[in-house]
Design a protein that fits this description.
The complex is a heterodimer.
Chain A lengths: L4 H16 L6 H12 L4 H4 L21 H8 L2 E5 L2 E2 L3 E3 L6 E2 L1 H14 L5 E5 L5 H7 L4 E3 L6 H4 L3 E2 L4 E3 L1 E6 L14 E5 L3 H8 L5 E5 L2 H9 L5 E5 H8 L5 E4 L6 E3 L2 E2 L4 H17 L1 H9 L15
Parallel strand pairs in A: 1-5, 1-6, 10-11, 10-12
Antiparallel strand pairs in A: 2-3, 3-4, 6-15, 7-15, 8-14, 9-12, 9-13
Helix pairs in contact in A: 5-11
Chain B lengths: L1 H8 L16 H8 L3 H67 L6 H25 L4 H27 L4 H40 L2 H28 L5 H61 L6 H13 L6 H9 L5 H26 L3 H9 L6 H32 L4 H25 L3
Helix pairs in contact in B: 1-7, 1-8, 3-4, 3-6, 3-7, 3-8, 3-13, 3-14, 4-5, 5-6, 6-8, 7-8, 8-9, 8-10, 8-11, 8-13, 8-14, 10-11, 11-12, 11-13
The chains are: A alpha/beta, B mainly alpha.
């Protein structure tokens, strides 16, 4: 039910006014980000779209009757597909057996918005190449798994607004002379199967040999055992690997832009809006910054601003 | 034996019947008739001595074949087969224990740590003795692979522990790597060793119990007895003497050696077949079931550890469950059938019951884990309590281990008894053959002297 043309502008203005109470202002930043993302190579270029534009929330998060959120509430817990091996983003802490990390904080915030209790979550450990199938089949309500938003994936699932910005780099042993993928031609470079990283390694001009494994920790095992020369993936993940082995270093420039979004089924647009509303609260109430400081470190940058579809 | 009895018991004849049924023995008869008596006696003497010596050699050879088969069963094949099973079992148990210890999170339970260490120590010990026993057999290459891989495996498990203690998720990756090495390389090699050792055991047992050689020997004995009988009968007819002491001694020695051989072969065969049917066969079947159960147990733990979220381990559990049974043509049912009538039968049946209970407990674990109750699922697997998966599995594993140990004793007892039957037999038949040859020589040379 589209409003007539003469109503559109006032409605838009009204919505903007409502949103502005809790949204971060700064359309200039939004434009800058879109410019960066539209410059992304490979798959994104093939299916042209505005990847980071998500659905606009209808106000603060609210569980409306009949909505998908109401169904989740009736079930009693949120089902989230997460990584259990990505240090600092989603990992099973061996010391207490809890799933923890930056991605996990996002999930807890969504559970709190639905139930009033951040712990009403069932974490389902999934591999990278299981993320899209699990969202589409309804095996999970949401995926919080260092997942890059791109146009190719948007054809299969919906994404929330960007909640973290990463970019691909290279991790090598401290004594390695390699400075970037350009120095790794013919060498074995590791990433997970089904990740954008492995696609970027395959596409690199220097022709490294891509080695695909299940988890990024498996890549670190291979690196420590000398089976691969480097690991190349998002700097956020590489930071977590470096933290587990002080004899590694991250080298070279950031050569891709990886905006992370929470993946949700295309059938639950009400849930996408709800999650975007939750993310918006996190951006403004300092919780995003607190999570960032705890898991990624300081200095804490400004949270990635929300960018909505027109 | 017929020869001696006939020679001793033949009623004395007043006059020689010079034409005793000529048509029945043309070759020997014509040959003997063609020569003078001393010439015939000399020829007979040489012939009999040579025959006795040939018989002694043949008997000794057959006995040594059987004895070496039995010795091989007790001394080499059975220990190697046992080593193979123990290596396989210890490694499977180490894999399952390392996985479930890891799963308990935080500090691993001390009992699990000790069990893992005992497994590795046991595997290493059996690896060493198996390598010594295997020599240059086909199992040697697999044993070398195991010797090379075991330190790599333990190294990865220790790296996993170290990282885990630091709270790093890298630990789980090392454990998966270790488990992949175990399942992809070490366990298949152990399985090959076990299979080759079992084949060797079957061959050795066949050599010790096979019928053809024994029958050949019995036929040879029968021929020898017949010849002795004919010679004595001929001498009796020719010389009118009731008994020739030398030939009587030779006949008695022939009877003794024949009886000894027959009894030894019969008893040893009985013992070795008993050792196989109620010993090594059920032990092998039970060991196969136990190893499959341990693999499924490791799957159960690895599914809960697996942070990658793929369900390969649970799929493997289902495959193994299908193979393990109980049910028609499954490992457990085969083991129960094989163990029927052996001391391990009771424990084998208990294991089959425990397996069914364990599958039910496992489904409870999966239901909990699939519904987000990971911690409760882990608790059921790692702690003991009524109906806990860990407890029920211990019952299954324990029953199988008890059954294996019981039937192992049966095997050992009967195989050793079967081997010991051959003690002294080889020397015995040689000595008896020499006595026979001496008896023939003495008996005929006395007659020969009468012509001088």
């Amino acid at each position: 039910m589209k409003p007539p043309a003469w109503l559109r502008l006032p409605v838009l203005l009204l919505m903007t006014a409502a949103v502005s109470a809790w949204a971060v202002p700064g359309s200039a930043a939004v434009t800058a980000r879109s410019a960066l993302h539209s410059a992304r190579p490979a798959a994104a270029a093939a299916t042209s779209c505005d990847p980071t534009a998500s659905l606009r929330p209808a106000g603060p998060p609210q569980v409306t009757p009949g909505s998908f959120m109401a169904k989740i509430r009736a079930r009693g817990y949120l089902i989230a597909g997460v990584s259990q091996s990505t240090y600092h983003f989603g990992f099973l802490n061996p010391l207490d057996g809890n799933t923890e990390g930056f991605d996990i904080d996002m999930v807890h915030a969504i559970a709190k918005a639905i139930f009033g209790n951040p712990n009403k979550v069932q974490f389902k450990a999934i591999s990278d190449d299981q993320r899209i199938p699990d969202v589409r089949s309804g095996a999970v309500d949401i995926v919080a798994h260092t997942m890059t938003i791109n146009c190719e994936r948007l054809q299969q699932v919906d994404f929330s607004t960007v909640y973290f910005e990463a970019g691909q780099r290279v991790l090598v042993l401290k004594n390695s002379p390699a400075k970037s993928l350009a120095d790794l031609g013919g060498k074995r470079v590791c990433a997970t199967a089904g990740s954008t990283s492995i696609a970027n390694i395959k596409a690199a001009a220097s022709h490294p040999i891509p080695v695909a494994v299940t988890n990024f920790t498996d890549c670190l095992v291979l690196l420590q055992q000398g089976d691969v020369a480097a690991i190349s993936t998002d700097d956020s993940i590489l930071d977590g690997l470096k933290a587990q082995d002080p004899w590694t270093k991250i080298v070279g420039p950031v050569f891709t832009s990886e905006p992370y979004g929470l993946a949700i089924s295309q059938q639950h647009s009400d849930f996408v809006r709800f999650v975007n509303a939750v993310l918006q609260q996190l951006r403004t109430n300092g919780r995003w910054a607190a999570s960032y400081a705890h898991w990624v470190g300081t200095p804490v940058p400004a949270p990635p601003p929300a960018h909505y579809k027109a | 034996m017929g020869a001696a009895v006939t020679a001793v018991g033949d009623p004395p004849r007043p006059a020689p019947d010079t034409r005793p049924a000529p048509g029945t023995r043309p070759a020997l008869g014509q040959f003997l008739r063609a020569r003078t008596t001393p010439a015939k006696l000399r020829l007979l003497m040489v012939g009999l001595v040579v025959l006795c010596l040939i018989w002694g050699g043949l008997a000794a050879w057959v006995v040594s074949q059987r004895a070496s088969g039995a010795n091989n069963v007790v001394g080499t094949s059975e220990p190697l087969s046992l080593d193979g099973q123990q290596i396989y079992r210890a490694l499977s148990d180490a894999d399952a224990t390392a996985a479930s210890a890891f799963l308990s999170g935080g500090l691993e339970p001390l009992a699990a740590r000790h069990r893992y260490q005992a497994d590795i120590a046991q595997a290493a010990a059996h690896l060493e003795s198996a390598t010594a026993a295997a020599g240059h057999s086909p199992a040697a290459r697999d044993l070398a692979k195991l010797s090379a891989g075991l330190p790599v495996y333990t190294g990865e498990v220790e790296t996993a522990r170290a990282n885990n203690r630091l709270g790093l998720p890298l630990g789980a990756a090392y454990l998966r790597e270790a488990s992949a090495l175990m399942r992809g390389t070490l366990l298949p090699a152990a399985r090959d060793v076990s299979a080759q050792a079992d084949a060797q055991l079957t061959a050795a047992s066949g050599q010790a119990t096979g019928l053809p050689l024994a029958l050949l020997l019995l036929v040879a004995a029968g021929l020898l007895g017949y010849v002795l009988y004919r010679v004595q009968r001929w001498l009796f007819q020719r010389t009118h003497r009731r008994l020739n002491p030398g030939l009587v001694v030779a006949s008695v020695a022939a009877v003794v050696s024949l009886l000894w051989l027959a009894i030894a072969f019969f008893v040893a065969r009985g013992e070795l077949l008993e050792a196989r049917d109620h010993g090594s066969t059920p032990v092998a079947a039970l060991a196969r079931a136990d190893i499959a159960a341990l693999q499924a147990r490791a799957d159960e733990s690895l599914t809960l550890i697996d942070a990658g979220g793929d369900d390969a381990f649970e799929a493997d559990f289902k495959t193994v469950e299908h193979r393990l049974g109980p049910g028609p043509a499954t490992l457990l049912t085969d083991a129960v059938t094989a163990a029927r009538g052996s001391p391990g039968a009771g424990s084998a049946s208990a294991a089959a019951t425990a397996a069914t209970a364990w599958y039910a407990a496992h489904r409870t674990v999966r239901a909990l884990d699939d519904n987000g109750k990971h911690t409760q699922a882990v608790r059921l697997v790692t702690t003991s309590g009524p109906g806990h998966s860990g407890t029920v599995f211990t019952r299954l594993d324990g029953s199988l281990t008890t059954a294996i140990a019981a039937d192992q004793v049966v095997f050992r007892t009967h195989a050793v008894a079967g081997r010991d039957v051959f003690t002294g037999l080889e020397v015995g038949v040689i000595v008896l053959a020499l006595i026979m040859a001496a008896g023939c020589f003495r008996g005929l040379s006395t007659r020969l002297a009468e012509y001088r």
